[in-house]
């Protein structure tokens, strides 16, 4: 009974993360706009006024919170798969680093757990080094959600944002970039390992221009936690994915996972398969 209860807790910890990624930004956008036309209009007015003045914070290091990064829920998240971070070489706190991560997968679960939380004790493995996970800049346009992900040390994957971390925040900064982006997410399927680097070498130039060391990171198992439905070329789904990738930078994927309590082949939860991130 105790083992079964723990299994459910682990599954729920992952499910809340998936729902947060998929719905939190849209939910708070709609909620704040709705409140504008109610007797609670002062709440969105105050927030949007503050947001206007705070708009550039994500590209200036954000608002990192060690308390959020150390939430117990992230340990449950880690244990669901489980997720491991393997050190193959030390990182000196006297240097800055740009780390190119592969593969992207559907949600980059291992990168989030290892570099946006302390579930795998990154700060103990690499003392004096701060990890920053760079993600799609468009996510920081969603109210409330932007503040939530900033607290985890997540930053926009934009030139201004990354350059600020490497030049204005001292040394000991490790910026993790999942270089394949939306294009690589469309090629995510169990057993496949396709690296997408064409027209995506800006992170190399960024490291060279700012004197940062370039480090490759591979997440074993990332492509195995979801089964993606592939659309035939020229189908409506294929055209929609290309359109979103071109104009939004995000490609919607149709994927199959497992149910929160198992038993479903179309659930939102990833399959509990081991994930191991190794950097060299």
From TrEMBL:
Main subcellular location: endoplasmic reticulum
Superkingdom in the source lineage: Eukaryota
Any one Gene Ontology cellular component term annotated for this protein: endoplasmic reticulum membrane
Lipid bilayer topology: Multi-pass membrane protein
Recorded metabolic or biological pathway in which this protein acts: Glycerolipid metabolism; triacylglycerol biosynthesis
Keywords tagged on the record: Acyltransferase, Endoplasmic reticulum, Glycerol metabolism, Lipid biosynthesis, Lipid metabolism, Membrane, Transferase, Transmembrane, Transmembrane helix
Gene Ontology molecular function terms on file: diacylglycerol O-acyltransferase activity
Keyword set includes Endoplasmic reticulum: yes
Family: Belongs to the diacylglycerol acyltransferase family.
Annotated protein name in UniProt: Acyltransferase
Provenance organism: Eleutherodactylus coqui
């Amino acid at each position: 009974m105790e083992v079964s209860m723990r299994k459910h807790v682990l599954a729920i910890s992952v499910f809340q993360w998936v729902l947060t990624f998929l719905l939190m930004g849209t939910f708070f956008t709609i909620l704040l706009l709705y409140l504008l036309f109610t007797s609670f209009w002062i709440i969105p007015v105050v927030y949007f006024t503050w947001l206007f003045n705070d708009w550039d914070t994500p590209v200036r290091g954000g608002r990192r919170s060690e308390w959020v990064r150390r939430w117990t829920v992230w340990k449950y998240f880690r244990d669901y798969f489980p997720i491991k971070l393997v050190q193959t070489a030390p990182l000196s706190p006297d240097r800055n680093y740009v780390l190119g991560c592969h593969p992207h997968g559907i949600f980059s679960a291992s990168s989030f757990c290892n570099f946006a939380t302390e579930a795998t004790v990154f700060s103990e493995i690499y003392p004096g080094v701060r990890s920053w996970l760079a993600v799609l800049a468009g996510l920081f346009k969603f109210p409330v959600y932007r503040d939530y992900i900033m607290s985890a040390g997540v930053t926009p994957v934009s030139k201004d944002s990354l350059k600020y971390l490497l030049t204005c925040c001292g040394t000991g900064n490790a910026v993790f970039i999942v270089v394949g982006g939306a294009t690589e997410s469309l090629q995510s399927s169990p057993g496949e390992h396709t690296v997408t680097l064409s027209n995506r070498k800006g992170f190399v130039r960024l490291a060279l221009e700012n004197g940062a060391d370039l480090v490759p990171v591979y997440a074993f198992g990332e492509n195995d936690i979801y089964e993606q439905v592939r659309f035939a070329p020229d189908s409506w789904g294929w055209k929609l994915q290309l359109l979103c990738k071109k104009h939004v930078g995000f490609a919607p994927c149709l994927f199959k996972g497992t149910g929160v309590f198992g038993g479903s082949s179309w659930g939102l939860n990833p399959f509990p398969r081991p994930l191991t991130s190794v950097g060299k």
